[in-house]
Amino acid sequence: MNKIVGIGACVMDTLITVPNYPKEDTKLRATSSKIAGGGPTATGIVAASKLGEDAGFIGVLSGDNGGRFLKEDFEKYGVGTDNIDIIDGYRSFTSTIWLASDTATRTCVFDKGNLPALKLDEAKINAVKNAELLMIDGNEMDAAEHACKIARENGTAVLYDCGGLYEGVERLLKLTDIMIPSEEFALGHTGCDNVKAAAEKLFNTYSPKIVVITMGKLGGVLYDGRDFFEYPAFLVDAVDSNGSGDVFHGAYAAALCKGFDYKKACIFSSAVSAIKCTGYGARESVPNFETVKSFLKEKNYEL
């Protein structure tokens, strides 16, 4: 059984690198293009695997080219695929992402496809029961809620990558142990005008063990119900920021499974996310554990 399991979006990304964003109704020559696996939980699970943890994905993929690519991509990175259903006759979840070299930012247009919703059979339920940690991202809402309830009954921690302000997210937030929202989500969901107030409101409303708000280049804030801890972002020569938040969540899951405390997990995950941004591809640029240790040692942090 996998130590970390995940339920959420699994996307075939087409990454197109451009020198700058073009004006509307013009043509622009791309610097490069490539196909890569994406999706918040899916990429987080890959990150956890590359950092040395036993991780598997629970989901449903199409039998089309996109679905085959996504399953093979998981296997390439050592992610367990036993609990992925492959069904024919459906369109995969895909996206096209422009990576602008001049700003190191990304713009994404996606098509969610038409796959039926994930259902948890006995094998998938057992995978959740026997895991140490379940990752979710707000997609596959019904299956994720079912899995969270199973996790809560069996001592499996739930880590929620709160990125999208989807309808009904409260169903998952109230079942979350490790709540990691983006700044945009935290402010938008709570109506607060600053992250510390938002962290307190999320904690008091949903009673997770911790709230960690990610703030991109500004680092982020951890709140445990008593104290705040501001963790740093690490400055690097970034070339591709796409998926950096997904990688942070996967790294946090890996850090907890390695026995790190919540504060150290923040620093570790921030470092992993920063290193990832120095290469192209959300998954292939995730470093291994030893690389992260060396990076942090250079920054005067010890794991």
What does it look like?
- With 303 residues, the protein is an alpha/beta fold.
- It has one domain (4-298): UDP-N-acetylmuramoyl-L-alanine:D-glutamate ligase (3-Layer(aba) Sandwich).
- The chain has 10 helices and 14 strands.
- The chain has helices at 40-50, 65-76, 122-130, 141-154, 170-173, 183-190, 195-206, 244-257, 262-276, 289-298; strands at residues 4-7, 11-18, 32-38, 55-57, 59-62, 84-87, 94-100, 105-111, 133-136, 157-162, 178-181, 210-214, 220-223, 228-231.
- The strands form 3 sheets. It has an 8-stranded mixed β-sheet, sandwiched between helices. Strands 3-2-7-8 form a 4-stranded mixed β-sheet. A two-stranded parallel ribbon has the order 5-6.
- A hairpin with a 4-residue loop joins strand 13 (220-223) and strand 14.
- Helix 3 packs across helix 4 (141-154) and helix 6 packs across helix 7 (195-206).
- The chain starts with a strand and ends in a 5-residue tail after the last helix.
- The mean pLDDT is 95.
List the total number of helices: 10
Q: Specify the CATH homologous superfamily.
A: Ribokinase
Order of helices and strands: EEEHEEHEEEHEHEHEHHEEEHHH
How much is the radius of gyration in Å?
A: 18 Å
Strand content: 15-25%
Low-confidence stretches: none
**From the coordinates shown, what is the CATH architecture?**
3-Layer(aba) Sandwich
Distance between the termini: 27 Å
According to CATH, what is the topology? UDP-N-acetylmuramoyl-L-alanine:D-glutamate ligase
SSE class = alpha/beta
Helix content: 25-40%
Number of strands: 14
Compute the number of structural domains: 1
